[in-house]
Design goal:
- With 229 residues, this protein is mainly α.
- It folds into 2 domains: 8-151, Ribonuclease III domain (Ribonuclease iii, N-terminal Endonuclease Domain, Chain A, Orthogonal Bundle), CATH 1.10.1520; 158-228, Double Stranded RNA Binding Domain (2-Layer Sandwich), CATH 3.30.160.20.
- The protein contains 11 helices and 3 strands; from the N terminus they run H-H-H-H-H-H-H-H-H-H-E-E-E-H.
- A 3-stranded antiparallel sheet has the order 1-2-3.
- Helix 5 (80-90) crosses helix 7.
- The longest helix has 22 residues, at 40-61.
Length: 229
Amino acid sequence: MSLPKPPLTKLEKIVGHQFEQQDFLRQAMTHRSASPAHNERLEFLGDSILGLVIAEALYKKFPKVPEGDLSRMRAAIVCGRSLAKLGKKMGLGDFLSLGQGELKSGGYRRESILADAVEAIIGAIYLDSGMDKVQQVILNWFEPQLTQIEPGTSQKDPKTRLQELLQSSQKPLPEYEVVATQGQAHNQQFTVNCSVEGIEGAFKGTGTSRRKAEQAAAMAALEHLQESA
């Protein structure tokens, strides 16, 4: 039996937005394992809005920086790990509605679930109060990253960093394989294996798109290689 969740009014204070229609926030906190009225459509919407808001902020902050560096900086700010870190800071795990299987496996602290919940909240705020409000909230959340970030190779996404690391050692490029796809066509969860020559087994990543799953798998491979160096 799971412990009772805190009231959503507490989450509203943490998020920085009081909802006119609190059902949007309730749905944003509902994982697909808990109910058919889950948060993945809101996550899809929030992902697009987040990318746009961060892209505009970077465009204005760095008027002379080329597109490639802007793209890498945006990817660094809105990557799954960054969103999961924000979700943990907000304590979103305490508010998530999860099915029994996810509860038993610790889904309330899983990075992919927390990252998706952050994006779902963004989608919920947009539907509740429009673009101006959600932009204000996003810029408030990500102010530290936007203040500190600078153009540079450290902003490259995990797949690019893994590829360059292997090339620098004259090793073959990694291979990615989709090993599982769950859900209907508009509402899927992908699992990808990343294989690196010379390392037994594969590195697994999951995400609501193939791209996100591949990036997660590449990050797992990078972490292993860095720890083994």
